[in-house]
């Protein structure tokens, strides 16, 4: 009504994918209807749409010949969705579609028919970007491209097209997005026509002598600038960047300073910080960084808060200190905006020690209020629930977790932590979190081969069952069950179902995305697996273990640029890690069949850090074998110790010391020494399948030994049995390796036809076998010169060598 004030229009940033069917108006009505229905089904079937709809973070706008999707998640969502759509469209060659993507302000409104609609510059710009393209094009606005180019995965797919003029003389900067399989790499006709017109106009204007000099001078300056940039860039370490813009409602809880006179109370300060972090992580409206990534910022005096915020990808940081004295505790906490160092909130609590859990929940609720995070009733209840009423049990629990915070805990640390946790649950049999941690500890001992026995797995299962009896619907309970289903019976579908349930109450736990990524990798769902591992890294950006695993995935997918970036990311916060330094050198070896960078980095580590030799001995040995340097390989084998083994790059196959001695002897053309070594290796190796007849990796090694000893029938039977025991349908990641080793066995017994057949299977899917290994590894020497083998090797060569 006139005179009444209209409500304020509220905008939000939407990530828009605009789609339309090219040539729609020229189709018959029946064809229009059919094509539009097909497009709708394709769009609805994409994972990005299903996921965003399930989270209530998707808006749709039909446009007659297509539509717009507005994602309220991340700038990557519309790009991933466009890729899924483009992939599906390959099955419908007559359905010609173009797409445009932009991130900008949108608002949800109601039209004259009271139907939901969307308006705003974000929608308009996405349509303009799309209008610049032809069939098959996926065009991005420069704004979106700048967001994506911070992330190495997207950089190779972004191709700047410059400015495009659309309706009413408006000019937009567009970037063409395409891969080898998806998108349209051709210049859009609209830009091509504009370029031709500009060139013709320029040709009609004769340049002056002064202009010639200016152009020549400018060209020289450009060349100098490019040379300088390339020189600088060559020496600049590349890092694995945070994937998206930093969200406003994001926080990291830094380690609290221990101000207690008894410095042994440091574990208590860590426990307090950990509980506050855990409480905040239960709030779905927040992004909260995992404890693994914040533990490295313990130095309170030297903290650069802006830098920390950028490294962790958060807008806010929580700092604090804890002072425990007798039955009193003083806790100070302060919230800081990491973008400008502004102090937003601070509070000091001076209370009885028994109130410590109340203080923690009060801080978590205060932080949620300061960040204007929505807090559901169930989240509030979870935050207010004390982990235990027994402070002595909490001390034992905090000591156990502090023990496991060290980098790469070994068997002794896991066992010591289990002992402390057992004491904790003995003091408080209702200590739910301690049972969950016990399930994790027993499961890690089992999964890491420290104690791979049925008894150890039974302990992990018993701890998970105890947690389930206390809180059957808790996310932590479902996570513990998922782990056991993955490590034990390998029931992947049930494990994924448990993770789905866990995610409802653990929105910020990177372990869910991490475990989901491992399961999907075993199922052969490599793209989904990689996305989930990358999601885990967003929540735990300084977790070297997850980064190492995603590097393995990149290796298996032969995405070597991103593999380098992942290793450089690890080295950015652990610059002296010799193992990671060695793996970074291995990337050039694998991609380019060039052992020199690998050799040089290993030599550097050996000469500057002799204590690190055990950590890189397997790499030293493998590099020497690849270079066919028997003397260096022997030296590396000696340096690695008496109980050393050589393990396959990304599989569970282990080669014993006598086996490697046999390989070195073969390489040195000493058949007598080789036979003696392999005979000794067989005496050891045959015991493993006898004790564990279902171990396919042990059968692969036994097959190679029998091949070396001339036992052809035994060797082939053992190799084929390994393939039967671990088919790719059961385990895509390790099952493919069985075909690789059967190919190797066949090569060693002289059956080149079988070797080529199995090797063709091995290289047809993501796996650890790359160009460098096939080109240089002595294990493949029997196939050198074989036409089929050389064709396979050539197919894996980098483009510049083909």
Describe this structure in words.
The chain has 802 residues and is an alpha+beta fold. Among the domains are: 12-203, Alpha-Beta Plaits; 243-364, 3-Layer(aba) Sandwich (Rossmann fold); 562-801, Serine Threonine Protein Phosphatase 5, Tetratricopeptide repeat, CATH 1.25.40. The chain is built from 35 helices and 16 strands. The strands form 3 sheets. Strands 1, 2, 3, 4, 5, 6, 7 and 8 form an 8-stranded mixed β-sheet that branches. A hairpin with a 2-residue loop joins strand 12 and strand 13 (328-337).
Uncertain parts: 1-10, 199-205, 207-243
The shape, in one word, is globular
Give the class from helix and strand content and strand pairing.
alpha+beta
Give the helix tally.
35
Name of the level-1 CATH class of the domain at 562-801: Mainly Alpha
Main β-sheet description:
8 strands, mixed
CATH topology (level 3) name of the domain at 562-801:
Serine Threonine Protein Phosphatase 5, Tetratricopeptide repeat
Second-tier CATH architecture of the domain at 562-801: Alpha Horseshoe
Strand-residue proportion = 5-15%
Mean pLDDT: 87
DSSP, total strands: 16
Helix content: 55-70%
Q: Which value, in Å, is the CA radius of gyration? A: 30 Å
Euclidean distance between termini CA atoms: 73 Å
